[in-house]
Amino acid sequence: MKTVFVLSALAIAASASAASHPFNAKDLAMMQRVSDPQLSADGAHAAFSVRRTDWEANKGVSSVWLLDLARKGAQSQRVTDEALGANSPQFSPDGKTLYFLATAKDSTQLWSLPVAGGAPAQVTHLPLDVDNFRISPDGTTVLFSAQMYEDCKDLQCTRDKLDARARDKATGEVYTRLFVRHWDTWSDHRRGQLFIMPLNGASKPVLLTQGIDGDVPSKPFGDNSEYVFSPDGKTVYFDVRIAGKTEAWSTNFDVYAVPADGSAAPKNLTAENPAWDGYPLPSHDGKTLYYLAMKVPGFEADRFGIMALDLASGKTREIDPQWDRSAGPMQLSRDGKTLFTTTDDNGNHALFAVDIASGRATPLLGDGTVYGFGVQGDHILAARADFSHPADLYTLTTRGKQLAQVTHFNAAQLADIRFSKATWYSFKGWNGDTVHGYVMPPVDAQPGHKYPVVFLIHGGPQGAWTNEFHYRWNPQTYAGAGFAVVTVNFHGSTGYGQAFTDAISQHWGDRPLEDLQKGWTAALEQFKFLDGNNACAAGASYGGYMTYWIAGVWNQPWKCLVDHDGVFDSRMMGYATEELWFDEHEHGGTQYEHPQNYEKFNPIDHVKDWRVPMLVIHSDRDYRIPLSQGLGAFTALQRRGIPSEFLRFPDESHWVQKPHNSVLWHDTVNAWLKKWTAP
């Protein structure tokens, strides 16, 4: 293996360049994806991950890169062989060593390399994969998570059980509680648990979460922002939802403290709050623990307030009660007076600085979407994207000054692509509230012409259309195919205040529908290039639910519909989905206690009024909204004699992610749209 792979981002991107053309699905699939920005202690070096698409292998290939920020004009360097699939870089406290995860011989372990130059070397040789990690403040130990069987006490016990299971010819699995499956994976009775061990391997890993019946970090998307060392390295803080029999309908995460040597059991620090507490971050002096907290039990989209816990007295206070935004994982300024976080904000996902004393939140990077950031001293390194630019790295000061782009990973490819430009608009929606959305004309639109329209409905429903470069529902793919795009951030969307987000609960079919109808009318009035008589509506997840709903209650404007992984039968969804807290909160309780709530806006009850041609898309491994929902809808369409198609992905989840599947998805959708909007 070479010591350093010196490849500039521009050189790699150049290989993908082609003649000037409107943006398309293949362009989307082939973009390099920059993520996980990290800064060395002195701010002189940046480390990050890059995912490149291997089209022939039909997968993404990840590697770790370094950039010398202190050297003007320096190019990014790939420092890991792509065969390792390296990711999750993290500098040692002194900045001299870079740690990361890599996979060799089917085992994912911790690796390292000298920042000054040298060969990568495997650090851990554990019997199980390392899922994620943190290096201790003194740089001598590693805190990591691994999947361990519930009745095991160490890693080898789990390894032995896995090997025995592989030899067993019987394939049945017995379950006594939920979850039996989650997101895209069936439970095998293993849980993510925290371990600690010396980096020199002088002793075996010590289990820190002994007796914790839950996953650390949380599944399916948790990471090392859910656990952290104290500044002196003697304590570990983590958040977890204790599973028991209620895991599938509880959002009661709590923050725990445990001695880093494992000498005592974890202690719950936030037991008084029955809602979600998480993402702990200690102050530099170790006296205060900052964390995020919701107030409504059983609600995953409640506002995350920033809390400060005095570890000596146990008293807590909310830092930002007047800031009507939901904070994300935080980082602390060098002087300990400011917290940095990201949040949805008026159509952007912005980076903010929050003053700890006053709670005042100041936007630092607000135009576009910030996917991740690192803070060291007076410097911030952020991964930022917008409608026409996939994520690249930017530097700025902690005061939001001197913004500079420092990577250009897709520059050559982007130079050959023609994009559309989005225009934000607003109108009066439900309850007279101001509602926002954006409109995109087709690429190369000509003045005075009208164009067919795709009306996109976002999922969540507590989500939003934001200024980002989305890898599944990217509006530029439709604009590049000749369609105008209209979106609406209806009531329920995030980034407009918690009351606006809350308004959709128990109102899936009326308030957001009113916003969509009024938003459609307003768009047609404001943007004359929209051909309102030649339009299709499309959505996924909640957007798919709404597509099924409008098929029965608002079908007049549409030439066709596209439904991806939508809820067709609200009643069965309440039993077949995995995260029960979501459906139960959104419908005001369980189906057996409040059946009328599930029938109030149930698309299946309006099939008799369906008449618009529909493309239905669903995946076998979607356990959030199971396959039977899509199959049921397609059956209804076929039984009623409505022109319809069904696209099934046997190897995808709630999201379609494999490169060839993504292109097939877009090609099928665009062919359907063109079929029904053709002159």
Brief descriptors of the model:
alpha+beta, 13 helices, 679 residues, Rossmann fold, 3 domains, disordered N terminus
Task: Give an account of the 3D structure.
- With 679 residues, the chain is of the alpha+beta class.
- It has three domains: 1-124 and 328-344 and 358-419, no CATH class; 126-318, no CATH class; 420-677, Rossmann fold.
- It is built from 13 helices and 40 strands.
- Strands 33-34-36-35-37-38-39-40 form an eight-stranded mixed beta sheet, sandwiched between helices.
- The N and C termini lie far apart (58 Å).
- Estimated radius of gyration: 25 Å
Structural class: alpha+beta
| Number of β-strand runs | 40
Reading off the top of the CATH hierarchy, the class of the largest domain is best stated as Alpha Beta
Mean of pLDDT:
96
The dominant shape is globular
Main pleated sheet? 8 strands, mixed
Instruction: Tell me the distance between the termini.
Output: 58 Å
Helix content range of the residues, please? 10-25%
Strand content: 25-35%
Instruction: Report the total helices.
Output: 13
Which CATH architecture of the largest domain? 3-Layer(aba) Sandwich
Strand order of the largest sheet: 33-34-36-35-37-38-39-40
